[in-house]
Amino acid sequence: MSERLGSNASSSNRLEKRKKMTQQVTVVVERDPESGWLVGEVTELPGCYTQARDMVELEKNIREAIQVYLGTTQDVQPFLQVWGSP
Fold it and tell me: 8-62: per-residue pLDDT in tens?
């Protein structure tokens, strides 16, 4: 079955057809002993690192780092779960 989305298709129909991709990644968080900042590494993406002063900022930064790494502007909503406290 094929579907043609032309100028007659409503924008809501186009949005319904578009699927959002969710990706799970592993983020390792360590505290830098010299600066005290948190450092996050995405283990599935070699060289994908970021840092921040607190976990809220680190989560924001890691999402941005993943988007840049993947070279896309689409929403990336990785599942971020931290075990233990920094």
Answer: 444 455 555 555 667 789 999 999 999 999 999 999 998 999 999 999 999 999 9
Domain 20-86 class in CATH: alpha beta
Instruction: Identify which of 50, 6, 5 has the alpha carbon closest to the alpha carbon of residue 27.
Output: 50
- Give domain limits for the chain: 20-86
Q: Is 59 helix (H, G, I), strand (E, B) or coil?
A: helix
Measured in whole angstroms, the distance separating CA 59 from the mean position of its chain's CA atoms is 9
Give, for 13, the enclosing helix (H) or strand (E). Answer: helix 11-17
- pTM equals 0.59
